Each structure stands twice: as C-alpha cells, then as structure tokens.
Amino acid sequence: MSDSHLTQSPKPTTRLLQMFRRGDCFLWMSGGALALAALMITGLLLLVIVNGATFFWPFDVTAVDRADGTKLLGQITATQAERKDGGGQIIKSAQTQFRVGNRDLYGFDFVWASTVELANFRRPADVVQIERQEYGDFLGFLQRVEESGRTVAAGAAAWEVLLAKAPGARALAVRATKLQREDIGAVNYAIQKAKLRLKAAARKAGSGAKIDPVFQAEIDAELVRLGVEYERLRAEAGALAVQAAAAQAVFTTIDGQEKKVPLAVVVRAFRPNAMTITQKIGHYLSRAGEFVVGEPRESNTEGGVFPAIFGTVMMTIIMSLVVTPFGVVAAFYLREYARQGFFVRVVRIAINNLAGVPSIVFGVFGLGFFVYFVGGGMDRLFFPDLLPTPTFGTGGILWASLTLALLTVPVVIVATEESIAAVPRGAREGSLALGASKFQTILNIVLPASVPGILTGVILAMARGAGEVAPLMITGVVKLAPEMPFDGHFPFLHLDRKFMHLGFHIYDVGFQSPNIEAAKPMVFTTTLLLIGIVILLNLTAIALRDRIRKKYKTGAF
C-alpha cells in the first residue's frame, strides 16, 4: 500500500461521525445557543434603553396643514410607509403619527394623518408645551396671563410673567396638598388613636360597666382639641388652594380654541422649538430626576415612581433577610446533621420541585396562610379594638416578602448545599483534630468558607424575587399606595401597609391604563429603571461575595 494512500484524509462522512462521537457538534450547538441567547438579551436591552432613555427629551413640535383645511400641532412620534399589493396598487397610504396632547379638549393624545395630505411643515418658535398635574401635556400659543380675572400681561410679555408666577402658584398648591396629606393626616391619625384608647377602655371595663369619668373627660377634651386643629388646617388648606387657583394662563390651540390653564397645575412650562441644546439637556435631567424622586400622577402614566422604587427595594431587602437564614439553616441541617437516607432524598426532591412551582401558586398560599390565618390571628390577638377593620389580616409588604421568601428559598438551599460540599475535607478534619466540636467546626470553618456560595444563592433569589409580580398582586401590592410603609409615626416602619412595586407598575401602566398609547414610553422607562435596580442590588451582593472570597481562599467558587 502506497504512502499517499495511508496519508489520505478521511471522508467527510467519517469526519462527521468522529465529531459526533467526540461530542464536538454538541459543543458547537451549545456555543451557538449561548451566543443567540446573549444576542437576544442584548437586543432586548437596547430596545428598552432606546425607548426608555429618550422619554424625557423635549422633542420639537411641528405644525402642519391638512388637505381639508384643518391644522395639526404636535410632536411627530411615528411614521408608516405606504403598502402595495402584488400589482403595485396602493393598499394603504403612508401615515404620520402626531402627539397632539390637549386630552381635555380632543379626548385623545395621538392622531394619525395621511402623509400625502400634509403640507407646510413648520416649527413655530412661540409654541408652548405645558406639563400639567392632570390631563397630560397641553400644546398651544400663549395669549395672556390673568390673576383673579384681571389681565396681568399679554402678548410677548406674557411668557416671562408665566415663568415668574407659575412656580409660586405651584408651590401654593403643593403646600395645600401637603397640609391635607401630612398635617391633616396626622390629626386624623391622632383622632383615631384617641378613639381606639376609648374603645379599649370600654372593652376592658366589660359590658354594662362605665368608663372612668376622668379618663372619659381626658379623651373628650383631646378630641375637641384635635377637632379644632382639624378645622383650622382644613381652612388654611382651602385658602391656599383658592390663592393658588387665582392665576391663570390663557392659550389658543392650533384650531383656534381658547383654553385657560391654572398656573397651580403647571408642573413645567417650556418652548421646545426655541430651546438650545443646553436647555434641552437641563430639561432632560430635570424630568429624569423627577421620575426617580417624584410621585406618580395621571393614573401612574406621568410623574415619578419613587413609591414604587421604595416598595421594590424594601420588599427585596425584607425577603433577603428572611430567606437567607432559613435557607442556610435548612441546607446545613440536610448536609451536616440529617442522616442520609430515603427521607432526606425525598426532602431534596421536594425542594427541587418547589423551584418549578408557578409563582401564582405561592401567592395563593401566601394569601391563605400568611394573610388570612397568621394575619387574622394577629388581629384577633393584638388588635381586637380595630376589628372588623383588618390590620395584618389583609395584604401588606410583610406578607408579600414572606411569600417571595418561600418562592426563592429552594434557590438558597441548593446553592448553600453545593457551597458546603465544596469546602475542603481537610479543613474540617484539621478543626476536629484540634479538639473543636462539630458545631464549632461548622460555625468557624465551614460557614465562613461557604459564605461566597451562600451569597451566590441570595443573589439569584434577589434577582428572581425583585421581578416577580403574580404573587404580589394578591398579597399586598396596589396601583397607588396613599401611604408608604415608612413614615414619621411610631413604629415608623409599618409592615402591615400595602405598597407599590415597579413590576406591578409596569403591568398596570402597560395593560390597565385607559390611554395605553400615551403610557407606552413610561413602560419602557420603568422597565429600564427596574433592570437598573436589580443590577445594582446584584452588584452590591457580588462585591460583598468577592470580598469574602478573598478573605477565605478555601471557600467555594
């Protein structure tokens, strides 16, 4: 046989069989699937970033004339190319979408118009855009500013007067709202507490018995004093509201309608077509800051999301504080103390199966066990005077956090067990040889070395728990929480209160809003914020894990 025949390369079919036997094809398939998944995630993030990060930019406003003689004024938000059939006939002409605002006048925010019917595109420098407390944005041309029915400024001078008076009127309105929500709310809280004290005294005295006259007189005097304070604050808030509503700006729309806008509802007024790039950047930063630290308005489709941020972070922290010790203790018991056998295998199978249970099932369990059973029992035991109004016997941030802790505890148990198993056996034996007990060895050797792996499980639990929505919908989350779980009243942290959550906020704005098209940018912006918060929480835990890992080189990786 010739040497050339011996060195001849194998046939293609043979090469494929060899690759299949070695598993090279599966390796390439796994790498391709991983690359595809990374590409899809990157594309999704880019979509969210592009649509969310541009929400606050003050785009120019365009005025156009239509073929029927009417006019449009608004921001061009989308375009659609014309569609033709196979024969070249136009099925649908090109369309342009305008965000015209003025929902209180037109009943809608967006208008689609045929592009071929539009002419004379222009960007008037004097068009004014108003961000209002309700009814969305207003677009029009400023005519004059009035105060108590009297014209203060008109024409070109009206713009400067509007900019000067609007912040003061808005401040008065905010002060009136603050009086109603905080000061009057504090008085109502004190009145409720006084009535509860009276009710508790009557309950302790028993049926048919009279309350101590001195105590009764003290409560009555306190209620009278609080009633006087309540009326004073209400009168002050009403006077501020009337004072704030005195100043108005009169506008005309592109179609000639006249509209009076109270300066008290003006959140922000600007001329987008006359703004420089520096002014637009400042406007963008101002709106972005309001989004992070402000409160929602207009059915959550405008304003800020700070209550939802606070609720999301607080719920995630409470969940992590609960799930970590329970998960770690369970894992150490299963690995170090439980006798390995049929029962332990069944428990591990049950834990693994729990990770695959739909989250809504955990929500139903949390509603039945935590809310109705535990919370109802606490109300009957500790808050009988408030019944039938529930305190802990209704959804709240505590029960939502505990429900998510149950949802994520399998992740922590599995990660902790793997971390314990990775601790070198020599470290244990060395500790035992030096006379340490099993508990001391676990506490001083195994646990510190396992902390990086435990934090890995906590990170995974936080990432999943922060984005869950279904269990929260029936255990405490609401569309709008009038009071946050943290305030100035003792005990300051009220775990019984309902709360807002960014995940539910996205669902509510995107699918339950009466004006979904106008709310779409808020969905992307809130999604971007939620992703950023989850990444920030994870990075914090990762930094802590890496710091501990450097300290204990023998720890699990």
How does this model look, in words?
- Among the domains are: 3-53; 311-551, MetI-like fold (Orthogonal Bundle), CATH 1.10.3720.10.
- The chain is 59% helix and 14% strand.
- It contains 15 helices and 15 strands.
- The strands form four sheets. Strands 8, 9, 10, 11, 12 and 13 form a six-stranded antiparallel beta sheet that branches.
- Helix 8 runs antiparallel to helix 13, helix 10 (359-382) packs across helix 11 (397-421) and helix 13 (438-467) runs antiparallel to helix 15.
- The longest helix has 49 residues, at 157-205.
Short descriptors:
557 residues; alpha+beta; MetI-like fold; six-stranded antiparallel sheet; five-stranded antiparallel sheet; 15 helices; 59% helix; 14% strand; flat
How would you briefly describe this protein structure?
59% of the residues lie in helices and 14% in strands. It has 557 residues and is α+β, with helices and mostly antiparallel strands.
Task: Describe the secondary structure blueprint for this structure.
Elements: H1 3-6, H2 12-22, H3 24-53, E1 62-66, E2 71-80, E3 83-84, E4 90-92, E5 95-99, H4 103-106, E6 110-114, E7 118-122, E8 127-132, E9 137-147, E10 150-154, H5 157-205, H6 213-244, E11 247-252, E12 258-262, E13 266-270, H7 277-293, E14 296-297, E15 302-303, H8 306-337, H9 342-354, H10 359-382, H11 397-421, H12 425-433, H13 438-467, H14 502-511, H15 516-551
Antiparallel strand pairs: 1-2, 1-7, 2-5, 3-4, 5-6, 8-9, 8-13, 9-10, 9-11, 11-12, 14-15
Helix pairs in contact: 3-15, 5-6, 8-11, 8-13, 10-11, 11-13, 12-13, 13-15, 14-15
